[in-house]
């Protein structure tokens, strides 16, 4: 079996390290390069707390390095300042970028799209690599056809600044695409204390719980005649994202188009 | 064993009927009378869907009837217009009122208190007969000493008008009595959509879910270092209240003071 | 709009009554007949606690009655002794049977199948009319592809005799169709008390909780790296099944084949 | 304020490190010594990933070292081979041992008890330092008086070998102390697949879920007429135990008796 050759940009960040640890465990993936602004020249194993790997941390992503490593895929968990440039360099070097870094705007995505077409080299962008969360959103959209009444409860650690979470908003938007416009609850319902009924997005109520101890959890609660159907996802650590990243690497290695969203790689 | 003799006022209402059905199943309780504005003269069994009981529905609660039935306890699930008068008649007739009807104001309660002292006949008032809900509130108050961070999620059918529920408010108030004043969550947290963080009462956030299918549920969620502790009560039907009503009847039968709240009858 | 004409067999049973109450609320459905061994000759409204409907309860299902009512669909919630005969009569009368009664054996189903082909009149059989439970099983099967590790917890009232529930078994069987054969848990795990790890079906563990107060609930709990995904269905009353029955009536009214399972009528 | 002086034995183990990190954050506690078989002579800060602390790791716990550091408390998270000796040395040196290490047998505990009496120096032993778990068990025992029907579901990662968990067994034993002997469930209930109803301890059913992703969770589910009451504890990390260890240090610093169990230090 030919192994998929992977280059990781942002190798010393929390996600980058986790990705490298995961790649090292997979038989069909081969780590061929790693770059970061930190620890340049050191062996990757030192950075991720593993034995010597034989791959040194290099500086900025450049075409020459990518080509010399014969990488198939560039996994990018860098930062909003670097991701656009890195993605273009990858495509022009014949390497498929698998991008987890957020911060690409619409114009940049359009430019990547154009480059993909011109070079006939694919690219993959994902705002969320959690297979569990993606399935939750997919199912929620499916249930919404049969049980239009739904509340979303998302629960996070108390250091999270924004409420509701991006995943909760995206879940609600997905359901709103399939259900008929409607008002939930009794038309005369009222709040004795403002905010009790949560954030209202298109009639769907989202409730944001913030507590120490919690990590990242979401419950989508559908109600119908005499029953409820609940879909819940609990993420306990950064490892949550690894099966999604590994799947993306595999599915992207010979990609020739731009694909956005992990959902496309799930059957 | 001498049975406790019980008179039920509001016998044909939903709660009254349920109370009667429960009394008929208990070996140590004896139904001796039942009153209502409806179905007067009919056998109680007919009203509650049971075989003939031998007790007819009578009209307004009067001292003479109470005395003739030699009732020990008057269970009152009537309405705000009748409950005060009924309670006074009971006490003056030497019968302990067990009151589940809401609507007594402070002046009326004070008057009942005075009457209890004068007549040396007790009275029991309870806003909530659910033993499970009472225990939930008691435990919440206890946990609050160790885990001051708490969010409350209450979930009800979508015909409920007010949010948050009375039980959720009472739970929060109980916790606020024991925990030090504090702000929960990150000081810089913000709502992208108003209401996301729920109703704020003294820094505790309450979230009200309303969906068809749901009945009456509450979850009190405490967060601490690396852990959460959750207390949840699910009420599925009116039967929920019956063990609390039966317990109250037993504990009230020889009461000589005014007692408010089922909590006082739990060890 | 032409209304769908529905005949209900087993009209006075608990499910039959519920079905009739539901049909009476739907604009596109018309109750044209109702049969039962009880209350023959009485108006259906009396039986289900509604105002006069204008349809009397008749005796055994017969071709003549079905034809005279010009029924499109025969909903059967009778008993194992009647369901086979009723279904055949319906098909031969040009009426599509919608069967919720259990007890048809394989030979009988094959005979129905043959009759359907001969008469070119469809038939619909469903062991479960709960849309929520069907979706739960469908999703479970989908998740099993990505998260092969799964435990099932089913929770029912304590009057249920058998454990695990039929739905739990069916859920497990569905997952086993898609996941690779595997052993779950640590190879050296052991039970200090027998039964702790539940019932084992193909490596999936099923846990049956039985408690008063509970109704019918199931949780399918998938575990993966750093995360869990949970699908839970709570059924609180017989009403749970009505949306599924109504959907089946609509989808069956012009059916010309044999269809087994509500899943086929969900997109 | 005089700070409590703490010596940590087993400083380089997972729990020891966590305890040291916690002590360093507390204003009223002072780390005065740390011992381990590993890293002797190195600064404690190096071991726990913190800046220099000024306390070096020393070898075996000895009276001389304890006295020279003027420790008030010896926190012991060593191993079954060392804990008994360490505890005796501490008591004889006038230092209160706070023991989290398991493995003391009855004879050893009796000997510690005798030594405590003789020396008038206290000792504290705890099998579980999780305040949340202790409260869960306490509440469970309280609920058992009112709702005798209970099932316990405990959920752990799939590397756990034994089932049910020690906490589940202890929870059940606590409930059995307060409830009347009884059989739960229907007298005629049967298992279609053995184990479905879980482990039976005195009529209480315990269900052990094992899945990757899970950490350590337990749900105690009480059922009564028309309702359920649930107490759930989720432990997400080793940090869970720290508030209990810190509380124990504070409560033990001037202890003059033997105390067993964190429950004694909660109001």
From TrEMBL, chains A, B, C, D:
Pathway involvement of the protein, from the record: Amino-acid biosynthesis; L-lysine biosynthesis via DAP pathway; (S)-tetrahydrodipicolinate from L-aspartate: step 4/4
Dihydrodipicolinate reductase N-terminal domain residues: 4-129
EC number(s) stated in the UniProt entry for this protein: 1.17.1.8
Catalyzed reactions per annotation: (S)-2,3,4,5-tetrahydrodipicolinate + NADP(+) + H2O = (2S,4S)-4-hydroxy-2,3,4,5-tetrahydrodipicolinate + NADPH + H(+); (S)-2,3,4,5-tetrahydrodipicolinate + NAD(+) + H2O = (2S,4S)-4-hydroxy-2,3,4,5-tetrahydrodipicolinate + NADH + H(+)
Localization terms from the record: Cytoplasm
Gene Ontology BP terms: diaminopimelate biosynthetic process; lysine biosynthetic process via diaminopimelate
Domain of life per record: Bacteria
Residues holding (S)-2,3,4,5-tetrahydrodipicolinate: 157, 166-167
Gene3D superfamilies: Dihydrodipicolinate Reductase, domain 2, NAD(P)-binding Rossmann-like Domain
Major place of residence: cytoplasm
Residues binding NAD(+), per UniProt: 10-15, 100-102, 126-129
Molecular function GO terms recorded: 4-hydroxy-tetrahydrodipicolinate reductase; NAD binding; NADP binding; oxidoreductase activity, acting on CH or CH2 groups, NAD or NADP as acceptor
SUPFAM superfamilies, sorted: Glyceraldehyde-3-phosphate dehydrogenase-like, C-terminal domain, NAD(P)-binding Rossmann-fold domains
Nucleus listed as a keyword: no
UniProt keyword list: Amino-acid biosynthesis, Cytoplasm, Diaminopimelate biosynthesis, Lysine biosynthesis, NAD, NADP, Oxidoreductase
UniProt domain Dihydrodipicolinate reductase C-terminal: residue ranges: 132-266
Family as reported in the entry's similarity comment: Belongs to the DapB family.
Assembly, per entry: Homotetramer.
PANTHER family: 4-HYDROXY-TETRAHYDRODIPICOLINATE REDUCTASE 1, CHLOROPLASTIC-RELATED, DIHYDRODIPICOLINATE REDUCTASE
Function: Catalyzes the conversion of 4-hydroxy-tetrahydrodipicolinate (HTPA) to tetrahydrodipicolinate.
HAMAP family assigned: DapB
Protein name (Swiss-Prot/TrEMBL): 4-hydroxy-tetrahydrodipicolinate reductase
Organism (species): Desulfosporosinus orientis (strain ATCC 19365 / DSM 765 / NCIMB 8382 / VKM B-1628 / Singapore I) (Desulfotomaculum orientis)
